[in-house]
Design brief:
alpha/beta
Length: about 550
């Protein structure tokens, strides 16, 4: 009975509809082919897909029986044949098209269900496959069939995603079917576009000279629509980067959300800023961020103490912020986060939008969930700044390498009479690592492995210095100060104000025509001045 149903459309005596199926991802194949057979489709397939269909108990015609030509060239040529592409591309309402395929005994193909070789998975495997293996995993016949069916979507349906099988099988009216075919045609072209972008990225990694490619396509996949963007009147969505360089799945975009409200546009921006800053530190560290700027950073062997110190740095800003750790959160740390009271009044429990870490113990996760039903708890692989940075401007994109420069890679040149102690060098490196993550003009003041104050985003550097010193308060005595760029002025300006406040070590890139003024000013106050030769602008 099943054999008869796929040869003749039910009760009509009309020729069976024909579906060509060739899949790498065979998810829900059993349900699909049984549903198609019940609707009267003759199923044509290739290789492993044909074997899987037959195992499901559904009759299947091998593609070589359709083409009259055997598979050849180690599988490179299977479906590249007029009997396949003529059947897909013929416009049913075009008499000359139908006469042409009829004269060559080619039958129409009404449905193409194809997905492509797992190229991304293959070329990003460890160990890295040989170049020849990558080349062999570039699908040729699949994209050809997909594009042909998508082009002729007026008459032919194309499906590339198992998630669309149910909707395919549910099509009833001609009008609904046409709308479905158009939507699937768009999805098919996008599928091929993303696939080709990954192939091109891989090829450039093999033949490029290290410079940006002449053309660039970044494949992205929708992870979800968001309530709104930065403001409630701005529609928004969140996409994952499907390029090869992000195959490791590290960072906020690949995070698991264990608990809490849905993430918002601003949540993603702030969580990314907090986690990249925290992951930049190798020692156990806590970072608290508000509006993408770190307002609290502390490094300690005991993460509970690091957390307390990060909050104390600026408890007003920390309230409603994002808390990041670069170590697993256990139950003791979770209890501290849940119960810690604001230093401003000693009573109010600290409120946060997000906690993000590389992992949680089962007890730690359950404890943290008890803080609030709305607290978003994220788990993500560690991701210090790395790779490529893309940023949109009107009608264009800016491309640069991420700022992955570490203090250990910098040549620290002492240009003052006073010399730093080992402890002061450790503190200035801590402050320098922090200033990289603060919006320019950026100043950080630190001591004993903790941020005391920061000034960010001011149009002039002296105001950033003033704000950072004010936040540091009485603890500024004996502290260190890092500046993301050189000081254009020193006397009665940034450098002198820092010296007068009690800062004992200052680091800046150097390079100003008035650098000697900074040296002279620091010498007057007995302050260590260090140049790095490296700038850390962040806009």
């Amino acid at each position: 009975a099943l054999r008869r149903s796929v040869l003749m459309a039910a009760g009509s005596g009309a020729p069976a509809k024909r579906a060509l199926i060739s899949l790498s991802d065979k998810t829900n194949l059993d349900t699909l082919v049984k549903g198609l057979a019940a609707q009267g489709y003759e199923i044509i397939s290739t290789g492993g897909t044909a074997t899987a269909i037959e195992k499901a108990g559904v009759p299947c015609t091998k593609v070589e029986d359709v083409t009259g030509f055997p598979e050849m060239l180690d599988g490179r040529v299977k479906t590249l044949h007029p009997a396949v592409h003529g059947g897909i591309l013929a416009i049913r309402g075009n008499e000359s098209h139908m006469q042409a395929i009829s004269s060559h005994n080619i039958k129409p193909i009404d449905l193409v269900i194809v997905n492509l070789y797992p190229f991304r998975k293959t070329v990003t495997a460890s160990p890295e496959p040989a170049f020849e293996v990558g080349v062999e995993n570039i699908d040729i016949g699949g994209p050809g069939m997909i594009r042909a069916a998508a082009k002729n979507h007026q008459d032919v349906s194309v499906v590339v995603d198992p998630a669309d099988y149910d909707e395919l099988l549910a099509q009833k009216s001609d009008e609904a079917a046409l709308a479905f075919r158009r939507k699937m045609a768009w999805k098919a072209f996008q599928h091929c576009s993303s696939y080709d972008a990954q192939v091109a990225e891989w090829m450039w990694s093999k033949v490029g000279d290290g410079t940006p490619p002449a053309m660039l396509t970044v494949p992205m996949a929708l992870k979800g629509t968001l309530r709104y963007g930065e403001n409630s009147h701005q529609p928004a969505a969140f996409y994952s980067d499907e390029s090869l360089r992000e195959a490791a799945g590290a960072g906020v975009a690949a995070a698991t959300v264990h608990h809490g409200k849905d993430m918002s546009y601003n949540n993603y921006l702030d969580a990314d800023a907090a986690y990249q800053c925290c992951c930049d530190y190798t020692e156990p560290t806590c970072v608290i961020v508000k509006h993408t700027n770190p307002c609290g950073i502390a490094t300690r062997g005991d993460l509970r103490e690091a957390y307390r110190l990060a909050v104390i740095a600026d408890p007003i800003s920390a309230f409603g912020g994002i808390v990041a750790f670069n170590r697993v959160v256990d139950e003791d740390l979770a209890k501290e986060i849940r119960e810690f009271r604001s230093p401003t009044d000693g009573e109010t429990r600290m409120f946060y939008e997000i906690v993000i870490a590389p992992g949680y113990t089962p007890e730690g996760l359950e404890c943290l969930k008890g803080k609030s039903k709305n607290l978003r708890i994220l788990e993500a692989k560690l991701r210090p700044p790395s790779g490529t940075s893309l940023r949109q401007v009107a009608a264009g994109w800016l491309y640069q390498a991420a700022d992955s420069m570490q203090p250990e890679q910098i040549e620290w040149t002492v240009v003052s009479d006073a010399k730093p102690t080992d402890k002061q060098l450790q503190d200035i490196k801590f402050a320098w690592r922090a200033v990289k993550h603060v919006k320019s003009n950026a100043i950080t003041v630190a001591k004993d492995g903790k941020l005391l104050g920061m000034g960010s985003g001011q149009p002039n550097r002296v105001n950033s210095v003033r704000i950072a010193l004010e936040k540091a308060g009485a603890e500024v005595e004996g502290s260190v100060l890092a500046s993301d760029a050189f000081f254009p002025f020193s006397w009665n300006d940034s450098v002198e104000k820092a010296c007068q406040a009690g800062v004992k070590v200052i680091a800046h890139p150097g390079g100003s025509m008035r650098d000697q003024d900074a040296v002279d000013c620091c010498n007057k106050y007995g302050v260590v001045l260090i140049t790095t030769g490296v700038r850390h602008f962040k806009h």
